[in-house]
Q: What sequence folds into this?
């Protein structure tokens, strides 16, 4: 850790806000072109250093060094964690998922064309939130779908009025080992849980006769939707900061035509605290996070979406660090005081991570 004295978050109260949680320059804001996502640019954009570079390019060298957190067992864990996300297509389905064997009684029910009658959208919202928790969401909120946050080429029919936004807590011990492969496993399992959660929620909605579009990082920007749905505020590190887990969450969303009641955005002092804290910026190995006191409209690279007042993260630098590290990094999550206050720890060594239950 580079900072001796760690800023402590003051006691905070979460309050709902009626005004927009953003300061927007409409002349600059446009729907994000997905081809500028950093992973896409690796494939097509020869104008930057990360072109055709894979972030596991140093993995074999690291394996031979047997460095703690980068051993065979650690990489095995990291790659295992993604398996459900990467292989279960049902997680990101926009249509009903056929059952292998449909019980006879179920065949009698016309799930898709006979709508469940909803007289009270507030009650329905409560059902949705309870179901999401049952299926594995740590946090869930609802917002009207602001189409500014859809990717430029996403065509979502007008009837999809609402987004159900869900956050999945990542393992605190795993993240506390960042930037090792163990921390990457904590991230990967967040994505695999997301596939499970989305599939169950999408089917729950379709079984009521409504439509559901299940999305991970695809189709729309998750962070502004999560802010709209009252899950948290935007931090200097470019991530959603939640009151419960800080930035130690993964996000996913479902667009639906179910009649629901939206939540309100919240504030609990993140913006002002970030102005002084800067721990994420100080601990980023490659200076990818702004050290400026104030947020601005100035983008850091082509993979940023302009038009919102914030601290823009240089995701090119971030990705190049991943290439050097042999796997992704979560240090700006690990060091954030909003994570530490919920996780109860900043740092866990790979050795201590594996020691558990021995
Ligand atoms: S993920 Fe790591 S490299 Fe990227 S911005 Fe965060 S701390 Fe920096
Ligand atoms: S670590 Fe970064 S994101 Fe977290 S409170 Fe400090 S400045 Fe904000």
A:
């Amino acid at each position: 850790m580079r900072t001796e004295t760690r800023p402590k978050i003051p006691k905070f109260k979460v309050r709902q806000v009626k005004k927009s949680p953003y300061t927007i320059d409409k002349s600059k804001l446009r729907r994000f072109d997905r081809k500028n996502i950093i992973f896409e640019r690796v494939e097509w954009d020869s104008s930057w250093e990360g072109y055709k570079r894979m972030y596991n390019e140093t993995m074999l060298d690291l394996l031979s060094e047997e460095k703690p957190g980068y051993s065979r067992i650690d990489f095995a864990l990291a790659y295992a964690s993604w398996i459900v996300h990467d292989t279960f297509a049902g997680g990101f389905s926009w249509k009903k998922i056929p059952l292998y064997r449909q019980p006879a009684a179920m065949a009698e029910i016309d799930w898709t064309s006979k709508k469940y009658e909803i007289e009270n959208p507030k009650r329905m919202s409560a059902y949705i939130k309870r179901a999401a928790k049952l299926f594995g969401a740590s946090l869930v909120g609802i917002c009207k779908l602001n189409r500014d946050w859809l990717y430029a080429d996403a065509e979502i029919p007008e009837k999809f009025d609402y987004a159900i936004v869900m956050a999945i807590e990542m393992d605190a011990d795993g993240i506390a080992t960042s930037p090792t492969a163990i921390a990457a496993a904590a991230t990967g399992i967040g994505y695999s849980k997301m596939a499970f959660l989305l599939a169950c929620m999408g089917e729950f909605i379709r079984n009521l006769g409504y439509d559901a579009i299940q999305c991970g990082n695809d189709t729309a920007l998750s962070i502004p939707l999560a802010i709209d749905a009252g899950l948290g505020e935007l931090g200097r590190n470019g991530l959603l900061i939640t009151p419960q887990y800080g930035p130690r969450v993964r996000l996913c969303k479902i667009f639906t035509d179910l009649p629901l009641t939206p939540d309100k955005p919240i504030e609990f002092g993140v913006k002002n605290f970030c102005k002084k804290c800067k721990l994420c910026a100080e601990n980023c190995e490659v200076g990818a996070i702004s050290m400026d006191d104030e947020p601005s409209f100035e983008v850091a690279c082509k993979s940023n979406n302009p038009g919102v007042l914030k601290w823009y993260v240089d995701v090119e630098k971030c990705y190049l660090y991943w290439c050097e590290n042999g796997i992704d990094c979560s240090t700006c999550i690990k060091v954030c005081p909003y994570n530490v206050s919920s996780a109860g720890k900043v740092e866990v060594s790979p050795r201590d991570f594996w020691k558990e239950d021995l």
